[in-house]
Amino acid sequence: MNKKKSPLALAMFKSKHQPTALSHERPFERIPIAKLYEQYERIQLESGKSEKAARETRFCVALLQEVTGATYLDEIDYECALNFKRALSVYPKNRKRIPELANTEGFEAIYLGFELGKETLSTARCLKIIQGNSSFMEFGVKMSQVNQNVFSKLMTKREVVSNRRHSFDDDHLNLIYNMDEYLEHRYLHPYYYWVPLMLRFTGTRLNEVCGLFATDIVHIDSIPCIVINEGMEGQRIKNNNSVRLIPIHSELIRLGFMDFVESRCGGRLFPELPLVNGYYSHNASKWFARRRSQLGLGKGLDCYSFRHRFITELRENDTSFPTIMSIAGHVTSTEEKRLGDWYKSPTHQAYSHSLHPSVTQLHTAQASTKAPLSTQ
């Protein structure tokens, strides 16, 4: 008796993407990097990666080809990967935006950039490029284009320590919150006022704040909280650890945050921030970069510095790492392994749940009291 095939089964049968058993495997095909990357990007987007992340990896792979001249992945051995890493350390930053370098590529751009004294890629940027190519080459291994990933562990975060982001100190915070537009409530958009305050008193990431809806502000047993999730259109979280409930700091309430939320009538808190490349934070990040420059804040100080300060204060108050994760959705690599083992345990899965806001509220309040604001 013939069984009727589903439309999906028929489509897969006719499609070139039909799963093929190894015994019926097609002859090996050496795929050019450009064509291979198209497959990689399609799979990444299908799995939920953002357009921004895809564009970043596309840049990393294009730069690899530019510097090495490789057409196929199997042309890149370990020595080639090492030389690529060395070349990145002297490659000019924002080459295409520099008129003298815009029409140059590869080592020609490196030599000319050196002669002109142009700024080179930061160590952190080099790490991201290496990691992007490592992910792509791992895909090449799975596609039988290479036998090993020569970029794996080629560069580690330890090499980036001197270039890491820094925490805001009291002087930095006083500069930010004592600007005339804060003291006099003069700002073009509400996010100019509320976003820096929310970052300071919640420890959230910039995109988490920029994508909030009024319905994300809830009361749990009379405690006002912010829900960080991706339940609404356009909302995006970094990882599963990022889903959390944050008690709203009393200073935000004193400054009128709850009234502001009510005025949004259930919609987005900051509708003036459009979705750009999958992120609501795009324009806010550009705006704060201009403010940072205006205030003379140095390199390594950006919107993430609010979060850095907040988490540092939690640690200084001897807050346990499960509590830090409940508030900030963040732990160190060592803590993450310990916490990951606990979360995977049958005991946790059977009996545990997220910490109640009444537990985390005290820690949130203690983490943001060292630099009082002059804002009224």
From TrEMBL:
Keywords: DNA recombination. Residues 163-364 form the Tyr recombinase domain. The keyword Ion transport does not apply. One of its GO terms (biological process) is DNA integration. One of its GO terms (molecular function) is DNA binding. The keyword Transmembrane does not apply. This is Phage integrase family protein.
